Fold this sequence. Notes:
It is a single chain. By secondary structure, the chain is an alpha/beta fold. The chain has two domains: 8-211, HUPs (Rossmann fold); 220-326, no CATH class. The chain is 49% helix and 15% strand. The protein contains twelve helices and eleven strands. It has helices at residues 21-32, 49-63, 80-99, 110-123, 127-131, 153-163, 179-213, 234-247, 254-262, 294-303, 307-313, 317-326, and strands at 13-16, 38-43, 68-72, 103-105, 136-138, 143-145, 220-222, 225-229, 265-268, 272-277, 280-285. The strands form two sheets. Strands 3-2-1-4-6-5 form a six-stranded mixed sheet, with helices on both faces. Strands 7-8-11-10-9 form a five-stranded antiparallel sheet, with helices on both faces. Strand 7 (220-222) and strand 8 (225-229) form a beta hairpin. Helix 1 (21-32) packs across helix 6 and helix 4 crosses helix 7. The longest helix has 35 residues, at 179-213. The N and C termini lie far apart (47 Å).
Amino acid sequence: MLKNSHSLKSSKNLLAFSAGGDSTSLFFLLLEQNIPFDIAIVDYALREQSKEEITYAQSLAKRYKLKCFVCKAPKIEKNFEAEARAIRYDFFESLMKQYGYENLLTGHHLGDRLEWMLMQLCRGAGALELAGMQGIEARANYMLIRPLLHLSKEELLAYLHKKDIKYFEDESNSDESYKRNEFRHNYAQPLLSKYKKGIRKSFEYLDKDRETLVKEVLLKQCNALYYFKSTQSRRSDIFHIDRYFKSIGKVLSSKERKLLELENSVVISRKYILSFWKEYILITPFLSNVVMKKEFKEQMRKLKIPPKIRAYLSTDAEAVALLSLLLE
């Protein structure tokens, strides 16, 4: 049932676990195929049931001799979906780095992919955005792999019921005040119930089309500087920029997208600077009111570093050294 699993047996894998039907299905499918993995789960402490979910995750890990990492999330005051995603992926990425995991595995399925596509369609999107989630995505220091992306929720639950495997239903999934839930219950699920075969085939075509439109890039990191080599297509570069920001819980606004089309240095949410520099795209924290030495300013001028990122670079000698090397 798993896709993109051929290289997982020889890799170090971390499963993003929630105790829900999706990640529990993936947990047992990985076991069946003798794929090594550990699990990581986030406790947002919003529901009484979350305590049971954490206990279940820990009991599964103990039974199958796996590591189980638990994150106690801080209280989220607003914009829950975006903040929760950022907390979740910060946690996963810290584990990937600390323990040397090569792949992060998630239980995203066909329904998730359709929800995302419909949301993008209603927001305003092109073919690249509509293709949405991919089975394999390169991140700065690891690969994000979604082995269940071709399967529907219905198929995953049927697998669990057949095997009599315990899983949890998150009651917040029925709360339509969350936009994804609104799209899931009102649009994605009804469409999948009637047109699953055609929808699955459409995504296969979109994936093939996407391969001709987008050149994959390798996102690299040096401290708080993220960078990748330009594809020589502004449209394709913006796609990768957008994908990076989604990975940290930030959705670019239509205004920010427009600025990226027109300008070479853009402030994103007053937190980040995105710069097109030489053959590279640079993403750094946004800093202001930083006093820079005269010698440093001259170095930046010679390297032709975009002015908006110089404040951050004045605090990171390693990043400056890296940029100097990139010019050689």
